Amino acid sequence: MALAYLSALTAITRTPRANKHLGVVLAFVAGSLNAGGFLAVGQYTSHMTGILSAAADNLVLGNAYLVTVSLVSLLAFIGGAGLTAVLVNYGQRRGYANLFARPLLIEAVLILIFGWSGGVLQHHTLVTVSQTVVLLCFTMGLQNALITKISRAEIRTTHVTGLLTDLGIEVGKLFYWNRTATSATQGAVVANRQRLRIHLTLILAFFSGGVMGALGFKWFGFIAAMPLALLLAIVALAPGLRGTRPAN
Predict the structure, then answer these.
(1) Residue 231's closest CA among 35, 24, 18, 20?
(2) Other Cβ atoms closer than 10 A to 142
């Protein structure tokens, strides 16, 4: 039963329930890595807006190295997203039943590398910190593209700006007062309560992951990344353990 449930999270045949549950897992992981990564390297890595703004600031301030790091981080995020697209499209051509397991397993390995690099980062040299930022950006790009393709762009997990915007829109609809009877051409304004619950759940998952990530890195250091990698690895490997094979 457990393997069947976990396998469904990465299966090609999607259900709203599977999308939501995988989204919650990935939002928790992203929140944890974002907060824990900040404690480790002093920079948030799950959203590119801040990194692009930092590139502009450092360009004006004349910090050429930091501008380069920001631009490489942006390229790493794009590269991670591109890798997901390649793997998913390749899996579709080959008829794999669990298209999304491979990108998820790669993300687990990248998180393991991040946790393993903790000994090197204790020295906090500028180069090693920059390399870790690039690694995390690549990981977040891979994850964001993964959930985007899985949910057909309905769910995001590595940043909450869009989630909060969509939540606000639904809240506005929820409290909108339809004063007059509506005509056939102008329907009543009605909130999508299901989307409202999904957005709120993902935001809470990201926040919960952030709290756990910050506490984990504060108390245990980089080893706190290992449970995150294990969680993703279990989800990714479940189809193989269950005996799922390509559909062709």
Answers:
(1) 24
(2) 25
H helix intervals, the chain:
2-8, 16-41, 48-61, 64-94, 101-116, 118-121, 126-151, 161-174, 193-220, 226-242
φ, ψ dihedrals at 161, nearest 5°: -60, -50
Please give the single-letter amino acid code of residue 17: R
240 vs 143, which has greater pLDDT? 143
209: amino acid identity, one letter: G
126-151 and 101-116 are packed helices; what angle lies between their axes, rounded to 10 degrees? 160
At 116, the amino acid letter reads W
Residues 205/31, Cβ–Cβ less than 8 Å: yes
Confidence of residue 121 (pLDDT cuts 50, 70, 90): low
Other C-beta atoms within 10 Å of 238: how many? 22
- Percent of the chain at pLDDT above 70? 89
SS3 for 88-99 is HHHHHHHCCCCC
Q: Which two tokens stand for residue 153?
A: 């762009």
Ramachandran area for residue 37 (φ above 0: left; ψ -120 to 50: alpha; else beta): alpha
Q: Report how far apart, in Å, the C-alpha atoms of 69 and of each of 66, 124, 216 are.
A: 5, 15, 27
Residue 153 DSSP symbol: T
Q: CA-to-CA distance for 12 and 107, rounded, in angstroms?
A: 19
Tell me if 178 sits within 8 A of 211, measured CB to CB: no
